[in-house]
Amino acid sequence: MNEKELSSASGYLQLGIGLIMMIAGAGIASMASVLGILIFLIGAILLKGLVVVNPNEAVVTMFFGDYMGTMKQGGLRWVNPLFGRKKISLRARNLNGQKLKVNDKLGNPIEIAAVVVWRVGDTAKASFEVDDYNKYVEIQSEAAVRHLAGIYAYDSMEDEDLNVQEVTLRDGSGKINEMLEAELTERLSRAGIDVLESRISHLAYAPEIAGAMLQRQQASAVVAARRQIVNGAVGMVDMALSMLSEKGIVDLDEERKAAMVSNLLVVLCGERGATPILNAGTLYP
């Protein structure tokens, strides 16, 4: 079932006619006239067809179980008084999802939550395809977040030397949000819901493993920092040896080169400032 527009007349004319007929009918009916009662009832029926449509609001109309159309023109409108009417807000709404405890792709328990901005796009589907579209949005959003958390890891456990580029919940926030929005759009389109925006609002390891995972992250950061330091130190040593050789400042044999490399690496890679020791002798016995 798809939405169709229902044309309606301005209600101001019917409002005036209805009031006049009710007043006139009441006056005539006071003289015990059947005509007066009839005029009064017709005026009341005319007034029953009036409906106020606010901005960003729609009115779904039905006639004995049949969907007649949706009225979106704002202001005071008039439709068939026999039509059943149901108002639906078209304003954007926020769904602040609760924190869910789920397992990620690697089986680690995590806490995750999402914020979804949505609105009703098709009033017919929202009214007749699902029982309660507000509850439908809430349940399907939770299901989408659970599904997304189950197909991606919270963080990459791969060795960086493998140069693996894998989307994770923590690092691939932009990609993850796009995929969440795409899945929500597919799920909620059945109820005529348009997803305007969705994003992960909370992401953390579950308390029972948070301490261990923090230690792992700290260890990974230390290893990455030391790797960067060693790479820089090796480059500086290579540059120093190359410049000494090119400019002929000193002629070093393999043993002296090894000693120089060792000393430079200790100085460059050490966590504390180096304490120099002057060697007044020779490397050879």
Distance between the termini: 97 Å
What top-tier CATH class of the largest domain fits best?
Alpha Beta
**Global morphology:** rod-shaped
According to CATH, the homologous superfamily of the largest domain is: Band 7 domain
Structural class: alpha+beta
* Rg, alpha carbons: 38 Å
- The average pLDDT is 82
State the order of secondary-structure elements, H for helix, E for strand: EHHEEEEEEEEHHHEHH
CATH-defined architecture of the largest domain: 2-Layer Sandwich
Biggest sheet architecture: 4 strands, antiparallel
Number of domains: 3
Multimeric status of the protein: single chain
As for the CATH topology of the largest domain, it is: Tetrahydropterin Synthase, Chain A
Fraction of residues in H or I helices: 40-55%
> How much of the polypeptide forms β-strand, as a percent range?
15-25%
Give the strand tally. 10
Structure annotation, total helices: 7
Low-confidence stretches: 159-164
In a nutshell, what does this entry contain?
By secondary structure, the protein is α+β, with helices and mostly antiparallel strands. Helices cover 46% and strands 22% of the residues.
